[in-house]
Automatic annotation (TrEMBL):
Keywords: Oxidoreductase. It comes from the Bacteria. This is Succinate-semialdehyde dehydrogenase (NADP(+)). PROSITE patterns: ALDEHYDE_DEHYDR_CYS (PS00070), ALDEHYDE_DEHYDR_GLU (PS00687). SUPFAM superfamilies: ALDH-like. The active site is at residue 260. It comes from Zobellella endophytica. Belongs to the aldehyde dehydrogenase family. PANTHER family: SUCCINATE-SEMIALDEHYDE DEHYDROGENASE, MITOCHONDRIAL. CDD domains: ALDH_F5_SSADH_GabD. One of its GO terms (biological process) is gamma-aminobutyric acid catabolic process. Residues 21-484 form the Aldehyde dehydrogenase domain. Pfam families: Aldedh.
Length: 491
């Protein structure tokens, strides 16, 4: 299988600012590689604060006209963008797999997932409404109207390069905001391709601007946006430490923030669960994108009465997963994003084993001839509760199994974390379902379901997993503010 695209112009190697594809002023570039074989794909601009400020200038200049455009007209532009994404879904899916490493079936699926957000918010644009408020005294008319916050800075992660940028830019544009964006340095190409299609759809110059930067230059770009009073909101998906930095650094200008941060998702299998369904749900939740997702189960608690049966069923499924590059049509687990990710995964496994865990399958580098970024998916049993992976996201294909004895015990363990993004549990007991759903301290709960993401649902966490919601009818709220209007002397 080849990853050649039918449209070579979708592989962009420039920033997009004020409706023009441009190089960084200093002319510096950084490399974007294929994690499957470490080969070079292309080079993109290594931007500085100068490009960041130029992007803000463009977005600020375009804001007044864009916000004045009727909501239905903004929605029509988003629908054209959506149609172009679907038209080029094969090229985009290949590009996702090329730069991120996930199997091609997942790359294609991610593009459809990204498109679903563009379509959803194209339709939501026409549903931006306010309220008429009953006046407190005679002779007044009072109302609340929703307005766009202004220029939005979007900072996206590497694990879903199509879905994350679509999930942030689509609601911003629907609300009437303009955007400056910085994609992750590991996977900028899919984002650039999507912006190329937005340009083709007719989104006006300056409404969307995107700049690339290496890991070393990223702080300079983001700090420029943090200092800019014209940037009124930041939407970020990434690590909790970086999210905390953004919150602190944005305080001087009191920006609105949407922070979708780290997770440490529990997955609970009660003794009354359908074990086959629970295994299927865990496979769907854990091994999507090779375990490199923020809502992946990181701690799997299995009732002691069904532990051994569940572990055997799970090991049979996990051991059969095929680890291979995305060019292999049978691939189910691709490479990790880079060698640092593999090192962390192996460290977590070694630490758990040192504390008494047993490796039931996997957990080693795979076929060195493929490259350094492949690891066999692992299942660990009887993991100690002091293991590193209990407090840190592994972000890889490792399933640690813990035994528990009672509902109260497992809820205490599940909530014993500063994070609160997603949680999952399997049970056939109706009363237990609602008790546990209420008790889990997470923003997302999967009940007898492992695949929870949807453009129609609010996505986000609590505690140190951040705040704000993306997707759903609530997804526009973070890109708007309420204005209260009071007209008097009407008698």
């Amino acid at each position: 299988m080849s990853f050649n695209l039918t449209r070579d112009d979708l592989i962009r190697s420039q920033n997009y600012i004020a409706g023009r594809w441009v190089d960084a002023a200093a002319g510096e570039l950084f490399e974007v590689g294929n994690p499957a074989d470490m080969s070079l794909i292309t080079r993109v601009p290594d931007s500085t604060a100068a490009e960041a400020r130029a992007a803000v200038d463009a977005a600020h200049s375009a804001f007044a006209e864009w916000r004045a455009l009727p909501a239905r007209a903004r929605g029509q532009l988003l629908k054209r963008w959506h149609a172009l994404i679907l038209e080029h879904r094969e090229d985009l899916g290949r590009l996702v797999s090329l730069e991120q490493g996930k199997p091609l079936a997942e790359g294609r699926g991610e593009v459809l997932y990204a498109a679903s957000y563009v379509e959803w918010f194209a339709e939501e644009a026409a549903r931006i409404e306010g309220d008429i408020i009953a006046p407190a005294v005679p002779g007044r008319r009072m109302m609340a109207v929703r307005e766009p916050v202004g220029v939005v800075a979007v900072i996206t992660p590497w694990n879903f390069p199509a879905a994350m940028i679509a999930r942030k830019i689509a609601p911003a544009l629907a609300a009437g905001c303009t955007v400056v964006a910085k994609p992750a340095e590991d996977t900028p190409l899919t984002s650039l391709a999507l912006i190329r299609l937005a340009e083709e759809a007719g989104v006006p110059a300056g409404v969307i601007n995107i700049v690339c930067a290496s890991r070393e230059r990223t702080p300079a770009v983001v700090d420029a946006w943090l200092a800019e009073r014209r940037v009124r909101k930041i939407s970020f998906t990434g690590s909790t430490p970086v999210g905390k930095h953004l919150a602190r650094a944005s305080a001087d200008t009191l920006k609105k923030l949407s922070l979708e941060l780290g997770g440490n998702a529990p997955f609970i299998v009660f003794d009354d669960a359908d074990l086959d369904a629970a295994v299927e749900g865990l496979m769907a939740a854990k091994f999507r994108n090779g375990g490199q997702t923020c809502v992946c189960p990181n701690r799997v608690y299995v009732h002691e009465a069904v532990f051994d049966v569940f572990a055997d069923k799970l090991v049979a499924r996990v051991a059969a997963l095929k680890v291979a590059p995305a060019t292999d049509p049978e691939a189910q687990i691709g490479p990790m994003i880079n060698a640092r990710a593999v090192d962390k995964i192996l460290q977590h496994i070694d630490d758990a084993v040192a504390r008494g865990a047993r490796v039931l399958t996997g957990g080693t580098r795979v076929r060195e001839e493929l490259g350094p970024n492949y690891i066999s998916p692992a299942v660990l049993a009887d993991v100690g509760r002091d293991a590193r992976l209990c407090g840190e996201e592994t972000f890889g294909p490792v399933v640690p199994l813990f035994r528990f004895g009672s509902e109260a015990e497992v809820l205490e363990l599940a909530n014993d974390t500063p994070f609160g993004l997603a949680g999952y549990f399997y049970s056939e007991n109706a009363s237990r379902i609602w008790r546990v759903a209420d008790a889990l301290e997470t923003g997302i709960v999967g009940i007898n379901e492992g695949a929870v993401a949807s453009e129609a649902a609010p996505f986000g966490g609590v505690k140190e997993s951040g705040y704000g919601r993306e997707g759903s009818k609530y997804g526009l709220d973070d890109y708007m503010h309420l204005k209260y209007l009071c007209q008097g002397n009407l008698r």
